[in-house]
Structure formats: structure tokens, C-alpha cells
Amino acid sequence: MSTHAGSCHCGAVTFEVQLPNGLEKLRRCSCSLCRRKGAVVASVKLANLRITSGESALTLYQWGTRTAKHYFCSVCGIYTHHQRRSDPTEFGFNVACLDDVNVFALGPIPVLDGVNHPADRRAVAALEASSTPQLRRLGPDDAEACVTLRQEMLREAPHTFGASPEQDLASDVARVRERLADVSGDASFGMFAPDLVGFVGLRRERALKMAHKASLWGMYVRPSMRGQGLGQGLVQAAIGHASTLAGVSHLHLSVSEAAPLALALYEAHGFTRWGTEPAALLVGDSLFDEHHMVLSVAVRPGD
Question: What is the CATH number of the domain that holds 147?
């Protein structure tokens, strides 16, 4: 461990750095600030840089995301050090401020791309990941989100669901949490962007003579998220899960005549209508027929 003393130009600010491995991560940077100050910078852990005098003379400058903290002497204006944005556990410091280092003898110094900062690239990647809908099987921790979306669907599309908000068992958080914890064959899938914006459930019949059947239920995608293939992903997830259940050969569902796009989606995935129930739903003063559909999951289109 070597210790080096440093200072600004006027001497109002002095500091000390401890370097366990000498000068590390030597660099210049092309960001709009660094290309103006032109300093050669090295890195050190926060605990290894200590202001020995003149801390009150330091001026803090922040810009952009205001994450990094750049320190300058308020008397002579020299940059001494900064707390890094890409690694807040480190200080970057002005190598030219060290008393015993000649920056002109260091040889070629790499220039980092500060215009396309790594923290910006991580932020963009995180934003893209969060804005790209993610499909996954739901678990007990998703119960409250499920209930919130369920209440929305019953409120916004009453003509497409048989349940009513005031009587809906699937709007009880405790009951939904218990159901989502059951891995006996039933499953629910959700689309997240990043909140839950789409849902579909799969329920297998329990009676011995009907255990070859499963039902797709509760299919819904928030209106603002439609047209992006989310419904297709949910239907495919339900079909895929049904095909893994030993003994299940047929997948059933019912769809209101008031949901022609949903009907077309199911038909595109191989479901066929085997019957229509007249006046199945009464919403206010309006009656709606309901189509009953089935898909053989033993042999599916494209298999």
C-alpha cells in the first residue's frame, strides 16, 4: 500500500490517497465535462481518499443525472476528484494533482466513451426490458395484482365475462393466493409490462370422468396493451401447459359474441365452435350469446 499526497493548484485543498496496487484504471473520458477539463483520472475506493485540509474550499458540481459528484477548488478552479457514477463505491481523482507523479511520463492513456456512458447503456437496457412485456406463470405473490386486474376486466368489459364484481370469488385476495399456490395441474399466466397487464387461467376438471378436459378462463389484456401479440402469448402458454398434463386431451373455453377479436384469436389457435348458447349473459337490458369452443391438445395445428 503506497500513500501519495496531492493538492489543487493554489494549495487550498490537500488530499491523500492510498493505492494498494499503484495507479489503477488510468483513463481520460470523452464526456462533455471531461473533454473540457482534460484530466487524467485514476480510481480508488472511497475509504482510500482523504481530504487532509481545505474541505470547506471544495465546490460540488453535478449535471445530467446528478449521480456523479465532481469536486473543484473554489479558489483556483482545479478539479481534484469525483465520486463515480458508474461505480459509486469509488472516487476518480486527478492524477496530475499528485505531488510525486508526472502525468506526461505515463505514456498513452486510454480514452473512455463518456458520451455513451455505461450507466446510460444499463439504464436503456433496463428500460427496454421493463417496456417489453414479460410472460410468466403466476404465483401466490401475484395475488393482489391479479385481483386488481380482475376487477378492472369485470368493470370495463362486463359483457364478456359471466362473473359480476360484487359476486366474483376470483376477486378475493386470500382465495386467489391459495389458488395460485396450487400446482396440482391448474395454472395461471400473466403478462407484465412491468405491471400485470394480461391474464389467462387454466383449470382441469376434477371428476374422474371429466379429467380429460381442462378449461381456459379469465382471458384478458388491458385495452392499452392490445395489438402487440400479448393475447397470443397468453393463449399459447395455456395450450402449452394443458399439453403437459397427463391424460388431458381437450381444452375448452367460452367466449361472448361481444368479443369478436377474442373469438378470432381462439380460432387462429385451432379452437372450433361446438355450440352457441343463446342469451347466455344479461348485462343491464342487453342479452349476449356465448360460443363454446374446444381444442384437441393431443394433436394441435402445426404439430
Answer: 3.40.630.30
Please check whether residues 13 and 147 belong to one and the same domain. Answer: no
Distances (CA, A) of 275 to 176, 278, 282: 30, 10, 19
26 CB-near residues (< 8 Å, 6+ apart): 40, 41, 42, 95, 106, 109, 110
Same domain flag for 163 and 105: no
In this structure, is residue 303 part of a structural domain?
A: no
Q: Tell me the per-residue pLDDT of 150-206, one tens digit each, with 9 for 90 and over.
A: 999 998 889 999 888 887 877 788 989 988 987 777 999 999 998 999 999 999 998
Among 99, 128, 157, the domain boundary falls at: 128
Q: Which domain holds residue 49?
A: 2-128
Of 75, 105, 128, at which residue does a domain stop?
128
The two most distant CA atoms of the chain are separated, in Å, by 91
Q: How many domains does the chain have?
A: 2
Instruction: Compute CA 35 distance to the chain's CA centroid, rounded to the nearest angstrom.
Output: 34
Which residues, 6+ apart, have CB-to-CB distance to 45 below 8 Å? 89, 90, 91
Is residue 302 assigned to a domain?
no
Please indicate, yes or no, whether the overall pTM of this predicted structure exceeds 0.85. Answer: no
